Amino acid sequence: MAVLDEYLKTQPPEAEPYRLRIAILIDLGREDEIIPSLKTYADQDNRNVALRLLLAELYSKKSNDWNKAQEEYNALLREGPNAEAYHGLFELLKKKGRAEEVLSMLDRAVAAAKPRDKSQANLSEAAHARAMMLVIGQDPELIGQLIPLGVTRTRGALGLDLLTRQFLAVLAARTKQLPAAESFYRSCLEEPHDLPAFLPQEQEIYSGLLRVLRLQGKHQEVVETCKAGLAKAQAANRLLFHTFLAETYSFLGQIDEALSEADQALQLADDKSRLDCQLRRARILAEANQRAKAIHECQVLLKDGTKPEDVHAIRLTLYGIYSTAHENDKAEEQLRRILQDFPDDAGAHNDLGYLMADQGKNLPEAEELIRQAIELDRQQKHQGANAGSEDEQDNAAFVDSLGWVLFRRGRVQEALHELLRATTLPEGDDPVIWDHLGDVYLRQGESAKARDSWSKAISLYEKERRRKLDDQYKELKHKLTLLQNP
Predict the structure, then answer these.
(1) Which of 316, 338, 455, 471 is the most exposed place for a label (fewest CB within 10 A)?
(2) Residue 255 and residue 291: Cα distance in Å, rounded?
(3) What is the Cα–Cα distance from 296 to 215, expressed in whole angstroms?
(4) What CA–CA distance (Å, rounded) separates 261 from 281?
(5) Among 309, 332, 306, which residue's Cα sits nearest to residue 319?
(6) Whole-model pTM above 0.70?
(7) Which pLDDT tens digit goes with each residue over 71-85?
(8) Spans of the chain, pLDDT less than 70
């Protein structure tokens, strides 16, 4: 302690020496000295942000000192935006059951940063708003508290700024709170479209709303929103609306309308978006049972393709068309060509492994490919911008593939474990997973569980009007009938 105290006279800028002093005081049984001595050090070195954050952290651990903690955090934030200070303050407000204050703080900063009129933006408040958004976006518990508060405020007299609602919409969509996300996005579109803050956000607002509507299966509302956007949007790219209309009409089986919208999108496309539009048109043709024409258009694109990433996208589309047509050898050829050029493509590893597993061939290789897909996916998520977030969970489709290949190899208990795990992951409500789970249960002689799993799969298929026509759906209905009437 004596040596450390001598060192602390130099006022080191980092917090670790002070944390060491706290640990020594605890070892000496002198806990009562911790906060008073740290307060003295902080008063003597008021510019030491790390030290003041440590003091506020200690205050926040005792309910009797919560007000002191809040005062310290607020004092730090008056000096400038600080993500660590906001993190500590928001944790404290959560403990006090006052998440509403977080929402109000954010809204005030956002409103000042980009005012509704043509007055000067406040750059300091903009920096504070960015710091708050960063902290909120990394706190699932706080997001869960803010979304319902935001919905209430949006519907009430107090209201929220346009950009606050847009931020909450993004968070709600990311956390699968889709009705709330839709509500926020729709409220954004109710703003006067000539506001200075609205036009720069119009594209993102329409795009976000359309994605949320599609995820909820509200296909007719997607059509209505696109038509409204084409009629009155000022800054949004019309390509957005024609693209969504093409995909939605195809989903609904309205192929003539889908192709018309795909053609209009292609006319609007620039060099960057043209290939996407061409491949979308090919997929629509395949959906309309014009596979020969779809394949021909892809092969023409492949012949003209020079960029590796373009060739990759074309081959993926060809794989999908061949796979749907049950031309498995041709589908496999496309995937192997992709892996030659892109050996780190996790999706291609999974698709090839699953394709072979579903045919019951080359099962050891299929398992190895799928395990590589899962590992590549983990590595790429860990290296991504959101490393450490809940988004790092395994891909449910890849885990389903692993369960399926294990089942095909006769390792039923291992298959059950992986398939059950797949149902707990994001996107784990895919009917294919529950179909596979039913097969495993039937192999184990658990007919009731098999029936429940297949019934669940059917209900998921029937949420999507087009998918119930798939061969998988028809086979599933047949299996369930056989189980009920052996």
Answers:
(1) 471
(2) 13
(3) 31
(4) 9
(5) 332
(6) yes
(7) 999 999 999 999 999
(8) 115-121, 156-157, 193-194, 196, 384-391, 464-470, 486
Q: Quick: pLDDT tens for 454-468.
A: 999 998 888 765 444
pLDDT of residue 481: 87
Q: Which tokens is 326 given?
A: 């049950």
Where do we find the tokens 């061949």?
A: 322
